Amino acid sequence: MVLPLWQQLIARTVAELRKTVDFTVIHHVTFAVDWMPCGLHSASTEIPTVWGPVGGSTYVPASMFRWLGFRGTTHELARAGTTKVLRRMFGDPMARSASLTVALNDDVRRRFASRSDVVVEANAVIDIVHDRTCGAPAEPGTRGSKAVFVGRLVAWKGIRLALDSLKHPGAENWTLDFIGSGSERDWLEREVVRRGLKHRVLISGQMPRLDVLAAMQKADALVFPSLHDSAGWVVAEAAAVGLPVICLDIGGPPELAGPNGHVVACDGNAAAEIARELSFLESAQRPQPSNRWSADRLPDYVDGWYERAEANWRVDHGIAESVGSDALNVIARAHIGGKLRD
Fold first, then answer.
1. Closest by alpha carbon to 227, among 279, 287, 157, 285?
2. Do the Cβ atoms of 99 and 49 come closer than 8 Å?
3. Cα distance between residue 50 and residue 305, in whole Å
4. Is the pLDDT of residue 118 over 90?
5. E strand or H helix at 121, and its extent?
6. How many CB atoms lie within 10 A of CB 117?
7. Is residue 194 predicted with pLDDT exceeding 90?
8. Integer CA distances (angstroms), 328 to 52, 307, 332, in order
9. Is 78 helix (H, G, I), strand (E, B) or coil?
């Protein structure tokens, strides 16, 4: 296996440490992509190993390429071809040797389920002090119909799809503020003028995080139709401030949005479906802020992963009798923080 330099350093460091340290579990946390070589691969055959959270196994469905444009399509085809080969070379062997794989979303879980024991948990940690960052929510009766898009202005983030949704019935009362910067900004500015949408579309550009959180608190919906985000943190931030999220049924956003999510199918009617969800939200009650992605959840999650990895390793190496069948059954069925998936 050919490793990047920093992963080679990890491999050498672990090998050196093992001369004096008897590791119980080793855990590869980052780089959080499932197609990169992992420096712990050689050690994972001898020590219980947790790999992840990792992601990347989400690709734009054929039905959605129309929303990418020429440059975006070229980029996506190159990305798909390259990462699929690299995943077979590096990701699959690592998943097979890992005692437990932590996937960012269901796409990743499905990709590695036949090769590893897999649980799903996004790598988002969002702790927001509302009275210092976001201010108070809008009073009942003062809400308008203001949506925000937050993210890089690149094709695969779905900016063309978000803009197109404004022309469909149900979205006619909505404005949309694009917060972010990127290579598609010039296209977006031209299209807003060409379509006569200057009175309904604002392009705010990149903003400090606290200003973004304040903008989301004052908005009525986050439109985030990303076409292959493994774990878009802005969705978790929206959940944390109680902002409804309209996203596609692909990748990590549905996982991160949770009950705040309004999930749209990836098909040719996606723009119209986004507009329908906007129409629904005009009269819907704003959800409560969520602490689902608080750092407080992590100790129990990680402890559970390590216990499960140790149990899997013992079973794989025929030494499960030292743990006991009852303990193994408990670990296999463990429900960490309400989210562990078998």
1. 157
2. yes
3. 7
4. yes
5. none
6. 19
7. yes
8. 22, 9, 6
9. helix
Structure tokens at 233: 């943190």
CA pair distance 143, 282, nearest whole angstrom = 9
Q: Write a three-state SS string for 219-275.
A: CCEEEECCCCCCCCHHHHHHHHCCCCEEEECCCCHHHHHHHHEEEECCCCCHHHHHH
- C-alpha span between 150 and 180 (Å, rounded): 6
Residue keyed to tokens 């019935």: 169
What's the rounded mean pLDDT across residues 69-89? Answer: 94
Query: Which tokens sit at 254?
Result: 């549905």
Q: Residue 120: which of 100, 139, 138, 92 has the closest Cα?
A: 100
**Whole-angstrom Cα distance, residue 276 to residue 269?**
11
Angle among Cα 278, 282, 285 to the nearest 5 degrees reads 110
pLDDT tens-digit map of 269-316: 999 999 999 999 998 888 888 888 999 999 999 999 999 999 999 998
Mean predicted confidence (pLDDT) in 35-39: 91
The b/e string for 244-258 (b: 16+ C-beta within 10 A; e otherwise) is bbbbbebbbbbbbbb
Widest Cα–Cα separation across the chain: 71
By CB atoms closer than 10 A (0-12, 13-18, 19+), residue 241 is buried
Distance CA 212, CA 269 (A): 29
Q: What is the pTM of this model?
A: 0.86
Q: How many whole angstroms separate alpha carbon 192 and alpha carbon 39?
A: 47
Beta carbons within 8 Å of 281's beta carbon, 6+ residues apart:
220, 221, 244, 246, 262
Q: What is the C-alpha to C-alpha distance for residues 111 and 45, in angstroms, rounded to an integer? A: 21
As a whole number of angstroms, the distance between CA 118 and CA 134 comes to: 36
